Amino acid sequence: MAKFPKGFLWGGALAANQTEGAYLEGGKGLTTVDLMPTGENRWKIATGHIDSFAPKKNEFYPSHEAIDFYHRYKEDIALFAEMGFKALRVSISWARIFPNGDDEMPNEAGLQFYDDLFDEMRKYDIEPVVTIAHFDVPVHLVEAYGSWRNRQLVDFFERYAKTILTRYQDKVKYWMTFNEINMLLHLPFVGAGLVFKEGENEIQIKYQAAHHQLVASALAVKACHEIIPDAKIGCMLAAGETYPYTSNPDDVAKAMEKDRESFFIDVQARGEYPGYAKRFFRDNHLTIEMEAGDEELLKNHTVDYIGFSYYSSRTASTDPEVLKNQTSGNVFGSVANPYLQTSEWGWAIDPKGFRITANQLWDRYQKPLFVVENGLGAIDEPNADGTIEDDYRIDYLRKHIDQMGEAIEDGVDIIGYTSWGPIDIISASTGEMKKRYGYIYVDRDNEGNGTLKRTKKKSFDWYKNVIASNGEIL
Ligand code: BGP
Asked: May I ask which residue range the UniProt record assigns to the signal sequence (predicted)?
């Protein structure tokens, strides 16, 4: 069995918008995700097509209450502490700090909330790992500026980042800029608050917005290094190796091209756009407007570590017959891999792919890796006595942690593992509550009914042992 390094950061990962609820409390402004209902409209909105910047009466918006972590975080953190968490990844909601995004002064009630939250973690020696932007843009910035398509967002983001870096400099030593930065290419409203008008060149807008986020990310890295010299700040990629469906060189080349979404990380970790990205812009007649000084900024302020999520591998094919068999529920346009089983939501389950992905990222960037998301979204059926035997979840996690250990044995430098949704939360893609990742069950259904009571699942004690044995006992 592989040895995990001493001080390995075991824990879990959450995002404000999927967890906190209290969507207008404490002076918080509306964020993009507060406009995303469950049901069929969600997908349309996620891809940048929305007709109202206010919630509608006849829709259900799961982020509005989520699991009420805003009021119950003490109870939840006590449970994480009981499992022995060394780290907890959370995000700060931009609109709790700057309700409109472009406000001159931050909102003190919002700042205080996260002060209290970090104090609560520190009480149990849980290291906060903080994502500055996790899928929520203040709605005012979308309406008034067009969100990340507008260069002005860089300044608003910089002000926000500097405000929180300064405020929490003594409490937070691990930071991350944008969650799954590549997601803006697939779900542009989710990743970047982008809304498209009929007939617009969506691809041009997405890559321009990406450039703005990359500049903003470099500015946050710069600010972090200046304000908290002993902190580490990383980027975050929705990772997952793309396999060729066959050994046909056409398939191999297609898989290679699909993996080139990691150009984001090339910019954030190596400090420049790679040649293949420039070629892609040329071939697609895209003009990315850059300001004087951007290139130097990107070059000089690269990240300290590579954060990534890994849920599954992807598979690419050029064969029209194979292409008919796209996996469901996956935004990466992957075809079904005949060697892999899938989750109830159609995500391929591939522990070995985790080792491969970690090796590829390490070989490529030679910077420490931090696994900040991994897990199985599944339906849990409580027994009559309320217990939940989630052996399928244990099985998934056991195999993935084992492969992470293999990657470490391969020489990959991995500093921590925060599994996704250690307590059941709202699903980002579907808005459902029944897609659960947690070691802790939350009594709430897709329509928002339930007591919100927390119950330990079977996986709770299992993960507790994994942490206590530093990954020796799986
Ligand atoms: C990632 C996001 C998370 C999270 C996770 C699981 O894309 O960073 O916010 O939700 O995926 O996805 P889902 O909630 O759709 O199952």
From this structure: none
**Which tokens hold the place of 452?**
């919100």
Q: At 418, is the secondary structure helix, strand, or coil?
A: strand
Which amino acid is it at 347?
A: W
Categorize the per-residue pLDDT at 2 as very low, low, confident or very high, splitting at 50, 70 and 90.
low
The average confidence (pLDDT) of the chain is 97
Record the pTM: 0.98
Helix axes 108-123, 69-83, angle to 10 degrees: 20
- Contact (CB, 8 A) for 234 and 306: yes
Q: Do the domain assignments include residue 272?
A: yes
Q: Which domain holds residue 441?
A: 9-468
For residue 240, give every residue at least 6 positions away whose Cβ sits within 8 Å of its Cβ, in sequence order, or none.
Answer: 310, 311, 312, 313, 314, 332, 353, 357
Quote the pLDDT of residue 329: 62
Residue 137 lies in a domain: yes
The active-site residue, picked from 373, 389, 432, 472, is 373
Amino acid (1-letter code) at residue 146: G
Instruction: Indicate the helix (H) or strand (E) that contains 283.
Output: helix 275-283
Q: Looking at the CA of residue 437, tell me the nearest atom of ligand 1.
A: 16
Q: Looking at residues 134-160, what average pLDDT do you find? A: 98
Q: Is 339 domain-assigned?
A: yes
For residue 375, give the DSSP letter.
-
**What's 68's domain CATH number?**
3.20.20.80
Residue % of the chain over a pLDDT of 70:
99
Distance CA 34, CA 23 (A): 7
pLDDT at 58: 93
Q: What is the pLDDT of residues 344-384, one digit of tens each?
A: 999 999 999 999 999 999 999 999 999 999 999 999 999 99
- Is the CB of 435 inside a 6 Å radius of any atom of ligand 1? yes
For residue 15, which atom of ligand 1 is closest to its CA?
A: 9
Classify 459 in phi/psi space as left (phi over 0), alpha (psi -120 to 50) or beta: alpha
The number of domains in the chain is 1
Q: Which pair of tokens denotes residue 11?
A: 């824990």
Asked whether residue 474 is assigned to any structural domain, the reply reads no
Q: How far apart are the first and last CA of the chain?
A: 10
Q: Tell me how far the alpha carbon of residue 428 lies from the centroid of ligand 1, in angstroms.
A: 5
152-167 vs 202-227: helix axis angle to the nearest 10? Answer: 30
Nearest to 457 by CA among 401, 398, 375, 380: 380
